[in-house]
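Researcher: Structure prediction, please.
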Amino acid sequence: MTILVTGATGPLGHHLLEDLADQRVAATAMVRVEAEAGGLPTGVEHVVATLEDPPPPSVLQEYDHVLLTSPATEQQADLEVTFVDALVAAGHRPHVVKVATDGFQDPQCQVRFMRSDRQVAKHLDAIGLPVTYLAALTYMESLLGLADVMRDEALVPVPAGDGKVGFVATSDVAGVAAHVLTHPGHEDRVYVVSGPEALGYQDVAERVSALFATTVEYVDTPAAQYADRLRSSGLPDWEVAGALELFDWVRHGAQDSVTDEVERATGEAARPLTDWLRELRGAFLGRPADLPPPQL
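Model: Predicted structure follows.
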């Protein structure tokens, strides 16, 4: 069994490589530059390449399974399609595990992040590669983008209304990916991967308050005001518009799914938000100097 992991230096990719190493399954990490290999788990092999500049055919032919994931940017669909075409051109037909955002499978969903995933999925399905889709709910790690304002202003200011979200830890999505990559019978399936419960942002504020002995309040913020916050943080306009679309999706109850896919795949219940917050307490009580910038 040979596995190639794209997005290897991101949170999900890193957790996946750790899981595979624990299972003594050999995997190769794809990194953009040689220097990034230094942050990989011990003993993990790597190849220097990108989605837009994939490994040569002779290298791609070595892998039976590929984890396909990339950041939610304006270029995501084009980059992933380019990489998929390289797999096909290599004359090899590996099993692709595509990480997407839940909602991509709904043709009525017009959130641009899901539309990008849907574009890639249509391409994968059209060329007929064996594929499994992991449709993840919003990552708990998205809350890191709110950590500073929770700490400095005691607020959770997002335009979510009363909508709830089945927040899931990236480590749990990685656990499902590890299972799908190492066990047969998952081709042509879509797994919706969630955390153990659907929570509103009021619930998030209450749990942060209780855990860290502070008082944080949720404020259903006007979309324009939230957009200004995101722009002031340096987020590109395309991603700002996508964030507003996503919160509108949340407001209408479309991110409140709760499934048991994590437990079915890993044998352990999905991680609750409180446990995740406890581990990341440094980000909410005071950002350590070496903590990477949050990803919204």
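Model: Residues 136 and 258 are 11 Å apart (CA to CA).
Researcher: Thanks, that helps.
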